[in-house]
């Protein structure tokens, strides 16, 4: 085509036309493209004079005609290897072989739905076809499964169209369904979506036989196909024993490799029953399975003759009645549990909710609370959510989002309970419930929930409803319910404070802690703020490893004296939670174990005088301790303890330092960096500090004073919650002080005294000086003086 266009461009140039410039200019500017446009687009424009008129001619059509004449092309359609396509559908779409039963039962449910819809306008369609139901009969001996429904059935043309055409709507609609994940003409409660569910039968079957009878046809047809085949057979049913009144019967001949120990995996009646209960127990039509049962019957048995007695001829034999257990096979309803979420919540009693919870989730305790709601508008779904009556037994499952507690249904058919945070965050993984929607975007196998805007909206509303349910428990008159909830699931909500900053406003009012004013009962943050004084501007907290150590911590002394409440954070996660919250109702959280603690009513004059008086002592103690502390200062938080060791503003607290050291995979190199500086605060009113102040002024080089400072620092490490670097060295210092105080107070053992007298005599004979033991030296201020 390009050469033809090139020839027309240069064989008839515009400049060669016999026209005057004055007459050509208006025509060219108004109707004719510039000459360079033709060169860029491959289209040739020319002017022709016909009957004193000018005509514009495009040579593209001429060139196309010339090309068509030079060589004609053939049109082809894409071809597909049917056996390969079926293999991909069967073995690539589905993760588990057991879903074949879900797909086939869903198809049967659709057939029943269709006949019910059509019978509204055509009652004759129901005829004498019997009740609308599904029956499943496994045969373990022959390795078959038969699924029968009394639905609409299919004619011969519908067999070809539905089963003979992959995806039913053709390849184009099938690909469109994959791309858009939208329902292809499903009506009301119809389950089918992509048109490939039937072929999942070949996951477990090497041969599938479909016998179907439509009320629109007088004949019954049989469709038959073998796995890994690209063809199928349709024939008319002629055996009267196999005639159906209406509906479809599917017989699966199970694959031989599914056979183990002479038993087929999916031919066991118990396995079929469990699969129906798992995937299809909420289908709107009764599903019966062929089950083995037992019953007790009375039978008459001949009574054996007693020893020594002879049986007389002609006399009737004595019999006795006994009970015997016999086994038999019969149909059993597998989906007796009704979809409670489809009913109006006002019509359902609490007992019904509890019974549904126990059956659906195999629980034995009643739930703490439940909520039943329907969401309409942009996305429509129904749901029932429960808070269990007991927390998980295995603590390892606490942060696990894959707890299988949320069962997702689409049009009452179970899809999945294996989620990774799509519908619920992991800190709410303890919530159990059912979600049913017609709008969920699923992949073709209906196993994977696709990420979409609809899913995000559902997630947001489910979370909000869950928090509303928990809030109702916390506000109920029965305080024991929320106490029980907090004991079981409190750590989940604390995890939510760390992972979900967007819901802090919902989570924070639900938190509970012990406090200095209420050591027996848990306190909420709202109650704490209600009890705050007028001058208190912050929420004080202390993080420790236990409630007992929190009560005796030296950081509390001045706050308790001033009647200020302090929250006790005794669980490992608590301090991280508070650090993520930072504030609540415009009140900052303040750690009382860190520097620059402001209590709101300090006496500035007294503080200034104390700092001036003990400024020299602070410098002297800092000189003695060296790099062990960043600085020494006068404390405003102590009343009875001589000193305390506090952390810097931006470093770890003592509790956090202890937790980080305990991490199995912790980075030891970051411990020194994140530990932060330590500040020693002294109590100017304590006698020990006053004595040290005197020693600093009168005997700054005293070794005894230096030993007291070292022991004071080591003691402050332990009382403040830190871990000493050398516990053995600290123990030796304490033993030495004990020996000085205790030694000789209660007298010696006689043997020791006798040996000491002998030693004294030998020392005197040798002319050596008498040694007086330190224990015999008594000071006037000895606290052990009688």
From TrEMBL:
Protein known as: Histidine kinase/HSP90-like ATPase domain-containing protein
Record family assignment: Belongs to the heat shock protein 90 family.
HAMAP family xref list: HSP90
Lineage, uppermost ranks: Eukaryota, Viridiplantae, Streptophyta, Embryophyta, Tracheophyta
InterPro entries membership: HATPase_C_sf, HATPase_dom, Heat_shock_protein_90_CS, HSP90_C, Hsp90_fam, Hsp90_N, Ribosomal_Su5_D2-typ_SF
SMART domains, per the entry: HATPase_c
UniProt keyword NAD present: no
Coiled coil: none
Composition bias type Basic and acidic residues, residue spans: 305-321, 775-786
Entry-linked NCBIfam families: PRK05218.1
Extent of Acidic residues compositional bias: 750-761
Swiss-Prot/TrEMBL keywords: ATP-binding, Chaperone, Nucleotide-binding
PANTHER family: HEAT SHOCK PROTEIN 90 FAMILY MEMBER (PTHR11528)
Stretches for region Disordered: 298-321, 749-786
Highest taxon, organism lineage: Eukaryota
Limits of the Histidine kinase/HSP90-like ATPase domain: 96-258
């Amino acid at each position: 085509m390009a050469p033809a266009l090139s020839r027309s461009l240069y064989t008839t140039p515009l400049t060669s036309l016999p026209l005057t410039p004055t007459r050509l200019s208006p025509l060219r500017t108004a109707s004719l493209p510039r000459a360079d446009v033709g060169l860029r687009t491959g289209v040739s424009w020319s002017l022709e004079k016909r009957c004193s008129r000018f005509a514009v001619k495009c040579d593209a059509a001429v060139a196309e005609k010339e090309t068509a004449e030079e060589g004609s092309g053939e049109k082809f359609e894409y071809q597909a290897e049917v056996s390969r396509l079926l293999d991909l559908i069967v073995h690539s779409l589905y993760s588990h072989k057991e879903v074949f039963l879900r797909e086939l039962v869903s198809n049967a449910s659709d057939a029943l739905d269709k006949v019910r819809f059509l019978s509204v306008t055509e009652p004759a369609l129901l005829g004498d076809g019997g009740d609308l139901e599904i029956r499943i009969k496994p045969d373990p001996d022959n390795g078959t499964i038969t699924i029968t429904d009394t639905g609409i059935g299919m004619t011969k043309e519908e067999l070809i169209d539905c089963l003979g055409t992959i995806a039913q709507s053709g390849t184009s609609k099938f690909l469109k369904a994959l791309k858009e994940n939208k329902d292809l003409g499903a009506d009301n409660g119809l389950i089918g979506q992509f048109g490939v569910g039937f072929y999942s039968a070949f996951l477990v079957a090497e041969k599938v036989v479909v016998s179907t009878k439509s009320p629109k046809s007088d004949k019954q047809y049989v469709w038959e196909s073998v796995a890994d085949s690209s063809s199928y057979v349709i024939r008319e049913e002629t055996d009267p024993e196999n005639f159906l009144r209406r509906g479809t019967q599917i017989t699966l001949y199970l694959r031989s490799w599914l056979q183990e120990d002479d038993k087929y995996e999916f031919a066991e009646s118990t396995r079929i029953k469990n699969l129906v209960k798992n995937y299809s127990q909420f289908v709107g039509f009764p599903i019966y399975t062929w089950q083995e049962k037992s019953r007790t019957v009375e039978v008459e048995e001949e009574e054996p003759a007693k020893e020594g007695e002879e049986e007389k001829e002609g006399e009737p034999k004595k019999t006795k009645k006994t009970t015997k257990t016999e086994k038999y096979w019969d149909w059993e309803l597998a989906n007796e549990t009704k979809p409670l979420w489809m009913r109006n919540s006002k019509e359902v009693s609490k007992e019904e909710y509890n019974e549904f919870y126990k059956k659906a989730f195999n629980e034995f305790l009643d739930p703490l609370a439940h909520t039943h709601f329907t969401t309409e508008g942009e996305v429509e779904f129904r749901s029932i959510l429960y808070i269990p009556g007991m927390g998980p037994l295995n603590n390892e499952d606490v942060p696990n989002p894959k707890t299988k507690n949320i069962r997702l249904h689409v049009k009452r058919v179970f899809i999945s309970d294996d989620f990774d945070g799509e519908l619920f965050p992991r800190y709410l993984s303890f919530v159990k419930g059912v979600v049913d929607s017609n709008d969920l975007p699923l992949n073709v196998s209906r196993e994977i929930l696709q990420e979409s805007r609809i899913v995000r909206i559902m997630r947001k509303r489910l979370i909000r409803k869950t928090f509303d349910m928990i809030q109702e428990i916390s506000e109920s008159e029965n305080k024991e319910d929320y106490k029980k909830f907090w004991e079981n699931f409190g750590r989940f909500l604390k995890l939510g404070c760390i992972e979900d900053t967007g819901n802090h406003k919902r989570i924070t009012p639900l938190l509970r802690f012990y406090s200095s004013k209420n050591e027996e009962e848990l306190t909420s943050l709202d109650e704490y703020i209600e009890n705050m004084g007028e001058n208190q501007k912050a929420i004080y907290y202390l993080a420790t490893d236990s409630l007992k150590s929190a009560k005796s911590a030296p950081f509390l002394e001045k706050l308790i004296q001033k009647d200020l409440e302090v929250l006790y954070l005794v669980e490992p996660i608590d301090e991280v939670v508070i650090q993520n919250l930072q504030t609540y109702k415009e009140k900052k959280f303040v750690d009382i174990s860190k520097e620059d603690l402001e209590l709101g009513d300090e006496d500035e004059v007294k503080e200034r005088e104390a700092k001036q008086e003990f400024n020299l002592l602070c410098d002297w103690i800092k000189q003695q301790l060296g790099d062990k502390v960043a600085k020494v200062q006068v404390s405003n938080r102590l009343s009875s303890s001589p000193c305390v060791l506090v952390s810097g503003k931006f470093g770890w607290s003592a509790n956090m330092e202890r937790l980080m050291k305990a991490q199995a995979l912790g980075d030891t190199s970051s411990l020194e960096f994140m530990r932060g500086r330590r500040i020693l605060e002294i109590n100017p009113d304590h006698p020990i500090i006053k004595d040290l102040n005197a020693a600093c002024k009168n005997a700054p080089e005293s070794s005894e004073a230096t030993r007291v400072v070292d022991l004071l620092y080591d003691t402050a490490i332990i009382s403040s919650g830190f871990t000493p670097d050398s516990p053995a060295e600290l123990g030796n210092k304490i033993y030495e002080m004990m020996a000085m105080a205790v030694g000789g107070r209660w007298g010696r053992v006689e043997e020791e005294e006798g040996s000491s007298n002998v030693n004294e005599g030998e020392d005197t004979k040798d002319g050596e000086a008498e040694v007086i033991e330190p224990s015999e030296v008594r000071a006037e201020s000895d606290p052990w003086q009688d």
